[in-house]
Write a structure and sequence with these properties.
CATH architecture: 3-Layer(aba) Sandwich
Bound molecules: ligand DLZ
Pathway: Cofactor biosynthesis; riboflavin biosynthesis; riboflavin from 2-hydroxy-3-oxobutyl phosphate and 5-amino-6-(D-ribitylamino)uracil: step 1/2
CATH class: Alpha Beta
Binding site for (2S)-2-hydroxy-3-oxobutyl phosphate: 94-95, 136
Catalytic activity: (2S)-2-hydroxy-3-oxobutyl phosphate + 5-amino-6-(D-ribitylamino)uracil = 6,7-dimethyl-8-(1-D-ribityl)lumazine + phosphate + 2 H2O + H(+)
Number of domains: 1
Family: Belongs to the DMRL synthase family.
Largest sheet: 4 strands, parallel
Radius of gyration: 15 Å
Distance between the termini: 22 Å
CATH superfamily: Lumazine/riboflavin synthase
Protein name: 6,7-dimethyl-8-ribityllumazine synthase
Number of helices: 5
Order of helices and strands: EHEHEHEHEEH
Structural class: alpha/beta
Strand order of the largest sheet: 2-1-3-4
Shape: globular
């Protein structure tokens, strides 16, 4: 979790396995595109920084975060991936919709991880406002996309 003490983009580069032989799927939500575009940018750049070749990074978009579960599930069925990353941004509104979407995605991704052979990495920002999301997608608290890329490489090696 990003806190004032933890920058999402900080890690020990030397401890990350080489990703040059790995294949990654990324499912990204179109909702709050300013945020999810920055998450995607961070994830792709970090995967490539650790050796992943662009042809082995497959990106698919879905309309909103709730659809991330379906997208990730389809990618696990297609096979061929060493790890899958989901990227989304849910921002709290005036109704409980926020809670339902967050719970649905969290439960859905957890379920895929418990039943599929391919690890799915959870890159869902759940914030009270847009500024908090910007802070965590390339702003003052780093980029959750970078963090997800590192986790994906580690889990692919697991
Ligand atoms: C409907 C909705 C709302 C209110 N807010 C968000 C949000 O902040 N972030 C997001 O990714 N998606 C949101 N959505 C869309 C839902 O995720 C979903 O796409 C629709 O409910 C259709 O299934």
């Amino acid at each position: 979790m990003a806190t004032a003490l933890h920058n999402l983009s900080e890690y020990d580069s030397n401890s990350i396995p080489d990703a040059s032989n790995m294949c990654f799927g990324i499912v990204v939500s179109e909702w709050n595109p300013e945020v999810t575009g920055a998450l995607l940018d961070g994830a792709v750049k970090t995967l490539e920084k650790h050796g992943a070749i662009p042809e082995n990074i497959h990106v698919k978009t879905v309309p909103g975060s709730f659809e991330l579960v379906y997208g990730a599930h389809q990618m696990t069925l297609n096979g061929g991936y060493d790890a899958i990353i989901i990227l989304g941004s849910v921002i709290r509104g005036e109704t409980p919709h926020f809670d339902y979407i967050c719970q649905g995605v969290t439960y859905g991704i957890s379920r895929i991880n418990a039943t599929s052979e391919i690890p799915v990495i959870y890159g869902l920002l759940t914030t009270n406002d847009l500024q908090q999301a910007k802070d965590r997608s390339g702003g003052r608290l780093g980029n959750k996309g970078d963090e997800c890329a590192i986790v994906a490489i580690k889990m692919a090696k697991f």
